[in-house]
Design goal:
The structure is a homodimer. Chain A is mostly helical. Helix content of chain A is 65%, strand content 7%. Chain A has seven helices and three strands; from the N terminus they run H-H-E-H-H-E-E-H-H-H. In chain A, strands 1-3-2 form a three-stranded antiparallel sheet. At the A-B interface, helix 1, helix 2, helix 5 and helix 6 of A face helix 1, helix 2, helix 5 and helix 6 of B. The first copy, chain A, binds a DNA duplex through helix 4.
Chain lengths: 164, 164
Amino acid sequence: MTPSKTRANPLFLRDEELRQAMELLFYAYRDFIAEPDAMLAKYGFGRAHHRVIYFVGRNPGITVSRLLAILKITKQSLSRVLGQLLREDFIVQRTDRVDRRRRLLSLTAKGEELERLLTDRQAKRIARAYRQAGAEAVEGFRTVLRGIINEDDRGRLAARPERG
Amino acid sequence: MTPSKTRANPLFLRDEELRQAMELLFYAYRDFIAEPDAMLAKYGFGRAHHRVIYFVGRNPGITVSRLLAILKITKQSLSRVLGQLLREDFIVQRTDRVDRRRRLLSLTAKGEELERLLTDRQAKRIARAYRQAGAEAVEGFRTVLRGIINEDDRGRLAARPERG
DNA sequence: AAATTAAGTCAGTCTTATTGACATAATTGA
DNA sequence: TCAATTATGTCAATAAGACTGACTTAATTT
């Protein structure tokens, strides 16, 4: 039960430290996801729907291919989820005027309402953790997480908000 | 494409800041998981096998019910995965002497080898991020992640390693 | 002796994801 | 202009990982 400690191993601290980081990430993500999952079930939706609603809400007018690149899933996987959200009027598509192959996705009022409902809970969880930890810890949190993300995708992240 | 900014909204910064945190968590977890996933596929295993191997390796002699509490999945879900790992000799069970209902789980040599293979990659990713971010940022990272985790489970996390 | 706990099993279902093969429409490049 | 490429969408089959519900067995507690 107790983590096995290898005494007199100079690498112990480092290994232990890294494992703790992995566990923190696992537990944090698990709990971060759990609340919205439960709410989505009432709509007959799942986690995948949440991700689509979130990123479309965050990037109004996003194209299908950009969404695929963010989610890193296949077109066929997205299709089922996106199709449901379109049919049930949570998301609308319009054709891009400059390139008419493109479909630009946005949330409807109904979609925005659900988005807020789901995101609010998660935002509260983060806000509580941020408040308790303080500004300096928050900066550290952001810096380390950025470092964990693949370099190619760091650019996708919004820049830090300026303070003042 | 560009996140829509609501000017003159005093809540903007806060909302933006919280959304960035959510996205950092999403991208970091997505990339953190991706490498082991690809390696596991070669064994005919998936993410669920990894989690079991990881937590059994980390807690030698763990009981089935403790493992279920960590993973927060059902017994039936665990059963399929654990059964495979037992049959293919990655994990062994022995009966607890003091309470013979309990099955104590541990990795075999083969299991430890796979565990190391999988964990090493992830550890390297974390180590790189830690190195780049510095000790202070690491402390902040840990503090905020702890705050995100449900209170009941914070006790499950190992205490900070002492420095010196 | 009865109740509870720990583990395991059978059966059926759902969501999310995959690969592979095509189809259509629009845009780009030679 | 015509061929190639790109963006999107669809059909079909498959797999992993999870769920609910119902039950069994063995061991321990009350």
